Amino acid sequence: RKGWTGSFVCIFALVFFLSPSEQVYDTSDGTLIQPLKGHKDTVYCVAYAKDGKRFASGSADKSVIIWTSKLEGILKYTHNDSIQCVSYNPLTHQLASCSSGDFGLWSPEQKSVSKHKTSSKITCCSWTNDGQYLALGMFNGIVSIRNKNGDEKVRIERPGGSSSPIWSISVADWGQKLSFYHLSGKQIGKDRVLNFDPCCISYFTKGEYLLLGGSDRQVSLFTRDGVRLGTVGEQSSWVWTCKVKPDSNYVVIGCQDGTISFYQLIFSTVHGLYKDRYAYRDNMTDVIVQHLITEQKVRIKGRELVKKIAIYKNRLAIQMPEKILIYELYSDDSADMYYRVKEKIIKKFECNLLVVCSDHIILCQEKRLQCLSFSGVKEREWLMESLIRYIKVIGGPPGREGLLVGLKNGQILKIFVDNALALVLLKQSTAVRCLDMSASRNKLAVVDENDTCLVYDIHTKELLFQEPNANSVAWNTQCEDMLCFSGGGYLNIKASNFPVHQQKLQGFVVGYNGSKIFCLHVFSMSAVEVPQSAPMYQYLERKMFKEAYQIACLGVTDADWRELAMEALEGLEFETAKKAFTRVRDLRYLELISSIEDRKKHGENNTELFLADVYAYQGKFHEAAKLYKRSGHENLALEMYSDLRMFDHAKEFLGSGDPKDTKMLIKKQADWAKDINEPKAAVEMYLSAGEHMKAIEISGDHGWVDM
């Protein structure tokens, strides 16, 4: 907040200029850039054109002056009474100026101002966003809807009549009520009681919120439906004007005592995540639960400000200003999105963090944790040494869940909701920003205030590794040794103690399930599908086939599965190879693995012979032949080369061995010569192999008597 005070001059009107370099007041420090002298009496109202090139001022001297953005007056016209309000059409830049007895319409294209009489003093005016209609609020409690030509289309008479003058449109009157209407004149919902006299109202650019100020000496923030969300700023006197800077969350307030205050509103993200369910606040009063896998959404409508949200398994807790609502899923179906109210705790709680368990609510208040039953009874309390920075439910039996707690002094504790003692897991020298525990509860990942991700062994307290540039971290819920962390515009995936694999991604990692990483960017949660090929190959390089298979199960391509299968097969890890070949439906290799397993059952354990068979199946014939020879099975190399018709290579394995092998080789070579239609060569080889009948048969077929 910034505040500037005038010489006790009542502030009736304020506007924002779209170009910060040419404002009358500098919003950074409140310096008066230039006073404008053109009116002879009190200025009641000012308004900027949407393009920022002109603004208009209306005064008690009955005149309207149009100024340029360079603060030069270019046009002046008058009414018969003091000017009460002015408003620019957002599309045509037509100016409406309203007095105690009439209103005028001026546009840059026309020289004259068309004026229209009214039955009462006009206190406020506003154009619709499409610039087609002008609403006039009057002192006698009537709202008149006019078209661009000034003709009345709809007339709304508020209860209370002249005792409830309309001071703002959308409609706030001095009957201390706020109401909303369609252009047809039909009221939307019921009147909302304000308990103060409203003097000003201002919508945010997109119309999602509105500001209301008046006799209660403060400006309140409301939803577009009229639900009060909170106080923007308390003042020392009546608030006569408030404005929202276009396309921003900056607010300026002008008061009776001459004070101008400048605020920035920060709309923080209120949300909760459990596995694939994400709950977040919408429109400040509603909660949307999103199933990140199916993309289904369900809206839980509320009529109060949502302050905190927590979700765990089938439970959803929503904290409002005066109560906490606990919802449960209607069924145990994992895809069920229907929530119903289970319990209500009608009590006001102040807390920094909120988590929900199966049977309890956990409130964090600075250094204090409180465990409440769903009936609101405090069952247990823990007091920490330092401020609590992070808290997370890590599972457990209903009513006995464990909590992971990180403190500002670097201490990390585990707490069970049914135990008054807090267990210290470890203590580091830097403050905790984010925590997560691995699936088997053996490792702990911490992001500290220096943006460093540190991973510890919980049992030995040893620091296993650390990585820089991290703002959040999450372990994979399906794989013990995989985690991801975000920071610096990158998503980092780390498997075991291998180097980090990076890809560009904006936002904060909040969950990691299988091949999906859940990332929060600004106000949007998305599930990012991340291929696991890189970490799988890291494991393959180290011949860690079982671990590589676990990673592959999270999501890799068919080509990756085949590579894993081949690597595991060459590594003689037949169980992993069989699973991988099953994934790609390769029956040929599955038959090979089955035959090897049968041989092992019968006592065969020559690994070189098994590997030689693998190489032969893969087409690595020379490597296979070397292994056959090394394992003392040259005959298998000879047989392989003979079957392949690679007779020159086969001869290398004849040596001075059994003559039967030589005869077999020549016979196969003769068969091959016959098949490729070289009968003379076939006859000669059959004769050499002693197969005289086959030689005679071929000779007879060709009429060769001299063979």
Automatic annotation (TrEMBL):
<dbReference type="GO" id="GO:0030991">
    <property type="term" value="C:intraciliary transport particle A"/>
</dbReference>
<dbReference type="Pfam" id="PF23381">
    <property type="entry name" value="Beta-prop_IFT122_1st"/>
</dbReference>
<dbReference type="GO" id="GO:0097730">
    <property type="term" value="C:non-motile cilium"/>
</dbReference>
<dbReference type="GO" id="GO:1905515">
    <property type="term" value="P:non-motile cilium assembly"/>
</dbReference>
<keyword id="KW-0677">Repeat</keyword>
<protein>
    <recommendedName>
        <fullName>Intraflagellar transport protein 122 homolog</fullName>
    </recommendedName>
</protein>
<dbReference type="Pfam" id="PF00400">
    <property type="entry name" value="WD40"/>
</dbReference>
<feature type="repeat" description="WD">
    <location>
        <begin position="36"/>
        <end position="67"/>
    </location>
</feature>
<dbReference type="Pfam" id="PF25295">
    <property type="entry name" value="TPR_IFT122"/>
</dbReference>
<dbReference type="InterPro" id="IPR056153">
    <property type="entry name" value="Beta-prop_IFT122_1st"/>
</dbReference>
<dbReference type="InterPro" id="IPR057411">
    <property type="entry name" value="TPR_IFT122"/>
</dbReference>
<dbReference type="InterPro" id="IPR056152">
    <property type="entry name" value="Beta-prop_IFT122_2nd"/>
</dbReference>
<dbReference type="InterPro" id="IPR036322">
    <property type="entry name" value="WD40_repeat_dom_sf"/>
</dbReference>
<dbReference type="InterPro" id="IPR015943">
    <property type="entry name" value="WD40/YVTN_repeat-like_dom_sf"/>
</dbReference>
<dbReference type="InterPro" id="IPR001680">
    <property type="entry name" value="WD40_rpt"/>
</dbReference>
<keyword id="KW-0969">Cilium</keyword>
<feature type="signal peptide">
    <location>
        <begin position="1"/>
        <end position="23"/>
    </location>
</feature>
<feature type="domain" description="IFT122 second beta-propeller">
    <location>
        <begin position="271"/>
        <end position="525"/>
    </location>
</feature>
<keyword id="KW-0853">WD repeat</keyword>
<dbReference type="GO" id="GO:0035721">
    <property type="term" value="P:intraciliary retrograde transport"/>
</dbReference>
<dbReference type="GO" id="GO:0061512">
    <property type="term" value="P:protein localization to cilium"/>
</dbReference>
<feature type="domain" description="Intraflagellar transport protein 122 homolog TPR">
    <location>
        <begin position="532"/>
        <end position="707"/>
    </location>
</feature>
<keyword id="KW-0732">Signal</keyword>
<feature type="domain" description="IFT122 first beta-propeller">
    <location>
        <begin position="23"/>
        <end position="170"/>
    </location>
</feature>
<keyword id="KW-0966">Cell projection</keyword>
<dbReference type="Pfam" id="PF23377">
    <property type="entry name" value="Beta-prop_IFT122_2nd"/>
</dbReference>
<dbReference type="InterPro" id="IPR039857">
    <property type="entry name" value="Ift122/121"/>
</dbReference>
